[in-house]
Amino acid sequence: MKYDYPARHKHLQQMTARLARDLRGPMSAFAQLNGATTAPGALDAKTKQLMALAIGITTHCEGCIVYHLRDAMRVGATHEEILETLGVAIMMGGGPAVVYACEALEAMEQFASSGKEPASGDAQKK
User: Cα separation of 16 and 73, whole Å?
Assistant: First the structure.
C-alpha cells in the first residue's frame, strides 16, 4: 500500500486550505471554477466527477484521483460505475493509466472500508 488514501485526502484538504489563506485570489477563482463546472447541468454531478477521475488518472495526478474519487463516491457513484470509468481512463491513457487506475482502485477500497466516505456514495458492490 503506497498511501492511506483517506489520510491523504485529509492532508490535501488541509494543504489546500493553507493555500486558500495564503493565495486568496487564485485559490478563490479556482474554487469558483470548480464549483461552477461540477454543479449539475446538462451532465449530473456524478458524471462530472467520474470524468474528472478519468482525467486525473490519464494525467497521472494522484491528488486529483483522491479528490475526484471521493467526490464521485459522495455523489453516489457505484463500484461498477467507478470501475467502468477506470476502464475508459485505461483505454485513453494506455499502460501508465493502468498504474494510476490501480491507485484509484486501492483508494476506493480504502475509502469504502474506512467508513470515512460520504454516506450517499458508498460505491459498494451490488
Answer: 20
Residue 85 domain flag: yes
Helix (H) or strand (E) run with residue 125 in it: none
Radius of gyration of the chain (CA): 14
pTM above 0.70, yes or no: yes
The answer for residues whose C-beta is within 8 angstroms of residue 44's C-beta and 6 or more apart is 75
Instruction: Give the type of residue at 42.
Output: A
- Has residue 26 been placed in a domain? yes
Q: Are 117 and 108 in contact (CB under 8 A)?
A: no
Please indicate, yes or no, if residue 120 is contained in any of the structural domains.
Answer: no
SS3 (DSSP) at 118 = coil
Give phi and psi for 31, each to the nearest 5.
Answer: -65, -40
Asked whether 101 and 90 are in contact (CB, 8 A), the reply is yes
| Chain segment 20-59, per-residue pLDDT in tens | 999 999 999 999 999 999 999 999 999 999 999 999 999 9
Residue 49 main-chain phi, psi, to 5 deg: -70, -35
